[in-house]
Amino acid sequence: MDVASRFAGSSTGVGFSKTKLAPSVTPAGCSKNDGRFQHLMGSIISSSVRNHVDPRELAVVLEPAEELIQVDPSELRFPFLPNEMMSALCSIKVVNVTDNYVVFITMSRAANVAGHPTSPNRGILPPRSTQELFVRRIAKKSVAQSIECDDKYIICSTTVSESFSNSQYGSDLDKFYYEQAGQIWHRRELAVVLYPAYQQGSPDGMPHTEVSSPYSSMGNELIQVDPNELRFPFLPNEMLSASSSIKVVNVTDNYVVFITTSPGANVAEHPTSPYRGILLPRSTKELFVRRTAKKSVAQSIECDDKYIICSTTVSESFSNSQYGSNLDKFYSEQVGQIWHIRELGVVLYPAYQQGSPDELVELIQVDPNELRFPFLPNEMLSASSSIKVVNVTDNYVVFITKSTSANVAEYPTSPNRGILPPRSTQELFVRRTSKKSIAQSMECDDKFILYSTTVSESFSNSKYGCDLDKFYHEEAGQIWHRRDLGVVLYPAYQQESPDSVPHTEVSSPTLLWTTF
């Protein structure tokens, strides 16, 4: 897979083969009695009869008389970067020119010589509204590039009702595009224009980073990475993880911004600390990368995963700019900035070099094996629960608690980390508070996570003994066990939980539960 295909949210994945037209919907500017519409539907039905196809499954993208959107500018402009290890960004504004709600989806043709990932790559436009799109161009690997470019960038749009966002398709516009029979889509094609990357400004005076030789990936290298690959023990179980470290060196006399990313095609996650930053001239930053196998994805010690570091030069005063504290936004939105892409391979080695996978037995047990709380949807109310964590080994065990960002509630814990002596038990007290402005339900999918790993008896006297967070993030090669606990909610007004877990009776939760 080439670099252009690695970037998440690839807009090339959406095709045209499932756009549909049904007799219940007419093209803009036509009525059902209009001869043009009757001729069109007659052609569709005749074709379906000849080919034994349901007419709703025929692909039709119309070029109707009334346009739904306008695009400014009407073309995409990029510096010419034929090397797939470099990328640049441009922006366009999509304007809904109707009094209806409009769904838009972006895509680029498979025949294009470059990928054009976009943020956002789809959305719902309220009447008469405008959405700015940021489009990145990355040359496809091993595909001949030329400044004379025939690439096309496509925006498909259709009208929907005001309540569409609450429908089954409101949160899945791809599915809506592929599956909703009878929906008529408008197609808008934008040309891609390339200009010499070495000029100081674009044809319209757009500033961007100067590159001395856009044809050489080494001549303008900004960073070096040591080592040039990530190494981890092979842990195919998603409940185990290990970390590795690399050093990123700024080899220039300029300030350099770096951002790390992990392609969606990887079979494992690679969260990093820090995962972005600003490098001073000739400085070095150590990154700590954790690898966790993705759930239900086949794993192999022969690994094709890639880890990507994007970098670009900035001014000395950049940290005081609007983007200085938001490097994600800088990467996604700063038009004309040229980014260098560095790919690192991921190498796995047998885990038995540190402990055989067959010997990676359970370190802790948790009683009970789930968290139970009364259902309190108001974020001004909270309740607590307790669990006991038992070290079932003859070793010292470090534990750390975490909860996922996808949870609809917060779960502060006391203590939230610690060191368990052999065969010892620690009681944890967990408080649940609903997150503000997030819909709550008694059917809860929240997860509470416990990580654990073995350490030596003298660990508490080491540099990490008083900083277990730093130990978790930075100690390369340490294998961590993950334990997920579900969260069960029960009615706040009942006298006992389903398993007779006692709790405070509340006849009126808003009056008797503790408020903050």
Instruction: Extract low-pLDDT stretches.
Output: 8-64, 199-219, 353-359, 495-516
By DSSP, the count of extended strands is 30
The largest sheet is: 10 strands, mixed
Q: Could you tell me the strand content as a percent range?
A: 35-45%
How far apart, in Å, are the first and last alpha carbons? 52 Å
Tell me the name of the CATH homologous superfamily of the largest domain.
Answer: Immunoglobulins
If you had to describe this structure to a student in words, what would you say it looks like?
There is one protein chain. With 516 residues, this protein is mainly beta. The chain folds into 3 domains: 3-20 and 59-196, Immunoglobulins (Immunoglobulin-like); 223-349, Immunoglobulin-like (Sandwich), CATH 2.60.40.10; 361-512, Immunoglobulin-like, CATH 2.60.40.10. Helices cover 9% and strands 38% of the residues. The chain has 6 helices and 30 strands. The strands form 4 sheets. Strands 1, 3, 5, 6, 8, 12, 14, 17, 19 and 20 form a 10-stranded mixed beta sheet that branches. Strands 11, 13, 15, 16, 18, 22, 24, 27, 29 and 30 form a 10-stranded mixed beta sheet that branches. The longest helix has 17 residues, at 35-51. The protein is globular, with a radius of gyration of 28 Å.
